[in-house]
Specification:
The structure holds two protein chains of two kinds. Chain A is an alpha/beta fold. Chain A is 38% helix and 14% strand. The chains are: A alpha/beta, B alpha/beta.
């Protein structure tokens, strides 16, 4: 009997398999992008005549060198900061042309007039840990996001998106231009209602 | 009868593998395009703090990176353990930040020069003094858009 040679394996479908793999990786690969808290620094030029802001419209947050928090001259835990900042921004204690008709706060006359006037001033020591500073920044941004989400949901009840989701979609390069155009005025509207006024003061030299 | 005789060597002809190189090239090109080279080796400890209210930092071509933190173990006997700034591949002082930003800005395309963001990749254990100094330098050269790069996570992790 003649020795039978082993049949060669059909390799014609190899290309298809390779393509499948290729397409799979194409779809699933996400190139790692960094994320973080975006901030804008104030310009360097000296303001000759700084605008006078009423004491009740400033929410002072101080982080000292032992990473303790002092909010409006009272010590506070970081876990309570978000709530305190929301209460301050949403207070709406103004009257007349300063009145805030969308605020849901207690309208305390010793707290902010309206979100447009309210300023959060964040001050840190030179020895504050960076990670604690970031935690504080994160909570303050979160306070703005809570309020912006609420207003966004009120103004666009049928969209099914929160402000944060909508903003993420807007900055995503994969979103179509038409959707971006539709989102842009809605986002801008909410940003006018709750502008992010977060001032980073220069740190205290001595403490 | 010989009509039905099996042909000699009736195995299937070998499949041409001529297209295999094309497939391999395609894969190669894909990975070439998709891979982002890490252009500077980290010489500082870089455990980023956690935050959850983050925004993505898209478009890598408009970002300038500034690293800061304690020098890594193998640089510690030479540079000490005090937090330092790293620009590109070198340790730098606060005074070098301005020049670095101007050089980076000049190397970008004209239309991008006004929309650049500075990403601060700073180790969580660093003191704010160094970061404040960096921020002052950035203000001097009018690089006002910054991003505190963080990793995704609950802020409570930072307080431990």
């Amino acid at each position: 009997m003649a020795k039978r040679s082993a049949p060669e394996v059909n390799a014609g479908s190899m290309a298809d398999i390779a393509f499948l793999l290729l397409i799979f990786f194409l779809v699933t690969t996400t190139i790692e992008t960094d994320s973080g808290l975006n901030r804008k620094l104030p310009p360097m030029e000296d303001v000759v005549d700084p605008p006078i802001i009423k004491e009740r419209n400033i929410f002072t947050v101080v982080v000292n060198k032992n990473n303790d928090l002092l909010v409006e001259e009272k010590p506070l835990e970081i876990s309570e900061l978000r709530e305190a900042a929301v209460a301050f921004l949403d207070n709406g204690g103004g009257k007349g042309e300063d009145a805030c008709n969308y605020c849901q706060g207690p309208r305390d006359k010793d707290s902010s007039d309206n979100p447009d006037k309210a300023v959060i001033s964040l001050k840190n020591d030179r020895e504050t840990d960076y990670k604690v500073y970031i935690a504080v920044q994160n909570e303050l941004v979160a306070a703005y996001n809570v309020l912006r989400n609420r207003e966004f949901a009120r103004l666009n009840p049928n969209l099914g998106l929160s402000f944060v989701d909508a903003d993420r979609r807007y900055s995503d390069p994969r979103t179509s231009t038409s959707e971006k155009e539709a989102l842009k005025p809605k986002l801008a509207e909410v940003k006018v209602l709750f502008p992010q006024k977060l001032s980073e003061a220069e740190p205290s030299k001595t403490n | 009868m010989s009509k039905f005789k099996k042909k000699k060597g009736g195995e299937l002809p070998a499949i041409s593998t001529a297209s295999l190189p094309d497939i391999v090239f395609m894969l190669l090109f894909f990975f070439m395009v998709a891979t982002v080279m890490r252009d500077s080796t980290l010489m500082v400890a870089n455990t980023l703090p956690a935050a959850d209210q983050v925004q993505k930092l898209d478009k890598k071509d408009r970002v300038m990176y500034i690293y800061a933190g304690k020098p890594s173990d193998r640089y510690q006997d030479k540079f000490g353990t005090q937090p330092k700034i790293q620009l590109n591949d070198k340790f730098a002082t606060v005074a070098d930040v301005g020049a670095f930003i101007l050089a980076e800005r000049a190397s970008k395309r004209q239309e991008l020069q006004n929309v650049l963001t500075t990403a601060l990749k700073v180790d969580g254990e660093t003191n704010m003094g160094l970061i404040t100094d960096i921020k002052q330098e950035l203000r001097k050269v009018n690089a006002l858009k910054i991003n505190y790069t963080t990793r995704n996570g609950d802020y409570m992790q930072n307080l431990k």
